[in-house]
Amino acid sequence: MSNVVVLDNGGGLLKAGLGGDLDPSVIIPNCLYRPLSAKKWLHPSPISISTADAATEAPSDLDLTSASVRRPIDRGYLINPDLQRDIWSHLFTSLLHVNPSNSSLLLTEPLFTLPSIQHATDEIVFEDFNFASLYVSDSPSLVHFYEASRRPTSLLSRAQCSLVVDCGFSFTHAAPVFQNFTLNYAVKRIDLGGKALTNYLKELVSYRALNVMDETFIMDDVKEKLCFVSLNVPRDLQIARKPGKENLFRCTYVLPDGISYTRGFVKNPDDAKRYLSLTDEVSSPSLGVKKDVIELDVSEKTEDRKRIDLTKNEFDLTNERFLVPEMIFHPADLGMNQAGLAECIVRAVNSCHPHLHPVLYESIVLTGGSTLFHNFAERLEKELRPLVPDECQVKITTQEDPILGAWRGGSLLASSPSFEAMCVTKAEYEELGSVRCRKRFLH
Amino acid sequence: MDDDATNPFRRMSSRTRKVAPKMVAALASSDNRTQAALARLEALENDNAGVEVVENIDDEDASLDDDDQAYIQKRQSKGTKRKTRQAKALEAKKAPKTFMELLHEANLESLPSHVPSYSKAAVGPPSSTSRRHFCTVCGFAASYTCIRCGIRFCSSRCQNIHNDTRCLKFVA
């Protein structure tokens, strides 16, 4: 086999590259968009690999203001195969430059994909693109595979067992993985992810300040730059009430005006960082690493931007900054009849064999883009500790690049010698059909 | 809210209110508070592309006069007649199904109880029923409930804003 295409087909971002590489060569939003100025649906331009400055450094001159978006994936599952086919064919021909008929495909699929969707996926892969062979995997097992091979001496790798918390774009899963297989009877899901959070922020800002209901891309940027997880909600609510300089959370985001700049930005990046001084006294030393990332993110071109003063196209955020990510920990506050993330993890662990419980609590791996909120892991540990039996240790591992975790695992798997034997070939598909082939993947 | 205190003139929203079709249905039903809450949650999963089409159709219907009604009915009935069964099937094929439709089609309830499935993986209700309420106007802890629509607010200032803008108008 010449090459393996590894494709992590997420609801928000599509990560693709060749098996064996360290990083995916292409990351693009898994959608088509139509700016106000265009009549046609366009393919978004790829995002650069270093995610820290992805949004600001993207080369596209296109104005994303009020762009409509069409996504092939809804609630995490593929509902529009035709649209997905469009996006994939753009990906394979113009971005990756691969010839599907002499390569195999490693594809990620969400857990519990419905049979009809699996069937549609197989049809696209084998009948439209003519891939030579296909292997379908789920992201928790790939993340586990990657973490286990990265730290061979850790408990996670010695016990071959971990609890992967995947908080992505469409939903959040707590999935126990054992011997590289996701224990699907124990998986628990919260129907909240990055998309719902962005939409919630949109709704709040639209009601309180400016109508931004159509600004999906801009509000994504606002969420990524300004939102963080609070370690003490009542205290932070008190602080957010204070006027003037004492309010550590107030900061202003400037919307693009379409003339001098086509991207929104944080008006005063120092204001946006002021909340960090608060968290120092409570948190653990592991915070130091993360701080650098945030500083890197906002410390550009501040001098000339400060001077720009707009009367209308900006809005203030105060308590929205931490109340939005708060929803993952307490979906009930939104009126959702679902338990929060900590309880979700406990329920997932309790569905496993009791012998696994201590190991699972000690090897929790956080992955997915929504775990990038500042203080996410600290808050989770704080909520989880009281719920876990005293004799168990809680240890939460964060990945250094949670968006790419599943892809890297896939890349490793694709370069392992046994990979070819695990695939279903086109000939087998044609002979046996979709259903029988799927049995091979033990789904 | 602090914002309002600093601004001498309260900014009024200039946008047109869009009431989603689901909201209309929710308002018509008997237990509309829970229905509206559900519809609001549903709206969190929306993309902004699909909405436009629906809006246009709504506007068209809304602008009709009573005089035109008969003519339109005629036109509509003519239109439906012309559509053959085949054309309808094609149209249905073209429009992608929503995930909820696919889920319904998969008929997961018919699976034996030990088989893990999408519906069984949901985390389920929280163990404690206590819920924090946040003011829909300013976001701080809310101790009062609107007697008409059940939405929360924290002070009389927020109540006034709520009554002016959002009460019983479930903005999608």
Question: Can you describe this structure?
Answer:
The complex is a heterodimer of chains A (about 450) and B (about 170). Chain A has about 450 residues and is α+β, with helices and mostly antiparallel strands. Chain A has 21 helices and 19 strands. Chain A has helices spanning about 55, 80-95, 115-130, 140-150, 155-160, 195-210, 215-225, 235-240, 270-275, 275-280, 285-300, 300-305, 320-325, 325-330, 340-350, 355-360, 375-385, 405-415, 420, 425-430, 435-440; strands at about 5-10, 15-20, 25-30, 30-35, 70, 75, 75-80, 105-110, 135, 160-165, 170-180, 180, 190, 250-255, 265, 315, 365, 395-400, 425. In chain A, helix 15 (about 340-350) packs across helix 17 (about 375-385). Residues about 50-60 and about 280-310 of chain A have low confidence and may be disordered. Chain B has helices at about 1-5, 20-30, 30-45, 50-60, 65-80, 85-95, 100-105, 155-165; strands at about 145, 150-155. The two termini of chain B are about 25 Å apart. Residues about 1-10 and about 50-65 of chain B have low confidence and may be disordered. Helix content of chain B is about 50%, strand content about 0%. Chain B is an all-alpha fold. The longest helix of chain B has 17 residues, at about 65-80. Chain B: This is HIT-type domain-containing protein.
Summarize the structure.
The complex is a heterodimer of chains A (443) and B (172). Chain A has 443 residues and is of the alpha+beta class.
Tally the helices of chain B: what do you get? 8
Q: Describe the main β-sheet of chain A briefly.
A: 6 strands, mixed
What is the percent of helical residues of chain B? 40-55%
Largest interface: A-B, 67 and 52 residues
Coarse morphology of chain B = flat
For the largest beta-sheet of chain B, the strand count, sense and barrel status come to: 2 strands, antiparallel
Say how many strands of chain B there are. 2
Sheet with the most strands: spatial strand order of chain B: 1-2
What structural category do the secondary elements of chain B indicate? mainly alpha
Q: Beta-sheet strand percentage of chain A?
A: 15-25%
Please state the CA-atom Rg of chain B, rounded to the nearest Å.
Answer: 22 Å
Beta strand % of chain B: under 5%
The SS-based structural class of chain A is alpha+beta
Strand arrangement in the largest pleated sheet of chain A? 3-2-1-8-9-19
- Percent range for helical residues of chain A? 25-40%
Order of helices and strands of chain B: HHHHHHHEEH
General shape of chain A: globular
Family (chain A): Belongs to the actin family.
InterPro entries (chain A): Actin, ATPase_NBD
Protein name (chain A): Actin-related protein 6
Biased composition (Acidic residues) (chain B): 59-69
